[in-house]
Design brief:
Blueprint lengths: L1 H22 L8 H18 L2 H4 L3 H25 L13 H32 L4 H25 L2 H21 L2 H10 L1
Length: 193
């Protein structure tokens, strides 16, 4: 769970960086990191200040919500930025500042939700497995590192839409494996992801 969640979270962050570069001008591609960390922090703090969430945690429900929020976020992003906003020109940056401010605020509002759920899910997983925290962190770091390695390779050979498709397929496999598949096969699916 932690491996696949970290993998999808970092892949989502790298997609976010690419989309920010394209939609908000190349000067704003750095926004992926603050949005990611803000969302993770808000999700983590929500769990910290509401410990009852840990007792009510259902992994299947959490994964369905995470997957739904991710699908909706990507759909909204393509809808809003594809239909209502143009791509900023490389020249004449000063004339686009008002539009870029509006786009940036909407961009942050849309993309913070999936990272909030990633933060919630990871924090609860850390709490529930605190006796094996070393193993949990290694799964987290390995999933994140693998996403950081594979996503740029995917971007080199595939379009943004294909990489987003890969993320959504990965999330779907994650949800499916935790709702329909026995434990040994879950590990195989996580490694195949």
């Amino acid at each position: 769970l932690v491996f696949a969640t970290a993998f999808c979270c970092l892949m989502f962050e790298l997609i976010l960086s690419r989309v920010a570069d394209f939609q908000l001008d190349f000067r704003n591609s750095y926004l992926a990191l603050p949005i990611t960390f803000l969302g993770l922090a808000i999700g983590s703090l929500h769990v910290h200040f509401r410990p009852g969430l840990i007792d009510k945690f259902d992994v299947r429900r959490a994964l369905w919500i995470l997957s739904g929020v991710s699908f909706i976020t990507i759909f909204i992003m393509f809808l809003i930025f594809g239909q209502f906003f143009g791509v900023p020109a490389a020249e004449g940056f000063a004339s686009y500042k008002g539009l870029l401010l509006i786009k940036t605020v909407i961009f942050i509002a849309v993309f913070i939700a999936p990272f909030y759920y990633f933060g919630r899910l990871l924090t609860i997983a850390y709490h529930l497995n605190r006796d094996q925290i070393g193993m949990i962190y290694s799964a987290d770091f390995f999933g994140a590192a693998l996403a950081c390695f594979l996503t740029p390779i995917l971007f080199h050979y595939a379009s943004l839409l294909e990489v987003v498709g890969a993320l959504l397929i990965g999330l779907s496999i994650l949800v499916w494996s935790f709702t329909r598949v026995a434990w040994p096969l879950r590990i195989v699916l996580a490694l195949a992801l």
